[in-house]
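Look at a sample.

——
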Amino acid sequence: MAYELYYWDGIQGRGEFVRLALEEAGAEYVDIVREPGRGTGAMFDIIGSEHEPHIPFAPPFLKDGEVIIPHVANILLYLGPKLGLAPGDESLRYVANGLQLTVTDFVAEVHDTHHPIDLSRYYEEQKQEAKARSAAFIRERIPKYLGYFERVLRQNPKGTDHVVGGTLTYVDLSLFQVIEGLTYAFPKAMAKRKADYPLLLALHDTVAKRPNIARYLASPRRLAFNEDGIFRHYPELDGTE
């Protein structure tokens, strides 16, 4: 039975972290909202259900038969062992989950660079606040997070090819997406920092060349970054430190 992924259409967003794992593993899945005749109605049927005992708060969520799993890190914790994308050592699976939760925190901060005041207001209504937030993000938060992940890679007892353990995990895929997104959103700021994170950038390049990922990136299933998603490129927010 195919996995069912529920997320907004038209953007990569948080759902992309799950898609990358499914695509790398060659897993059978259906991106429900993108299916003809389904749309967001299928997603809200579950979120707004008066009968489903374990309703998710918001997308993304994954449906595996009768099981519904919400939240990116939670979904990947569930999928990782099934897809061969989690460490074999059970204790390291929790290390991987902790790293993924840190990615979740980072992605939330990325989102807040363009919506620092009010999620219900357009970016154009909070541009000045966004400039201040982005300047602080570029100056302090990018080095804080990327420096941490670079150090984790450098100190991995199994070598610097992967962030946890000695084989590819979903965290490696997620860090690929983080670098992709930051490079799109803040190209000038990221260009200045490339030399600071050689291991992360090498990991990014290695993931991009993996056969299943390369095919996915070249396919129409991989939506382009745009200014409706989490990683948005507004030139006035880039390099404002």
Observations:
- Residues 212 and 218 are 10 Å apart (CA to CA).
- The chain has two domains: 3-83, 90-237.
- The chain has a mean pLDDT of 94.
- Strands lie at 3-6, 29-31, 61-64, 67-70.
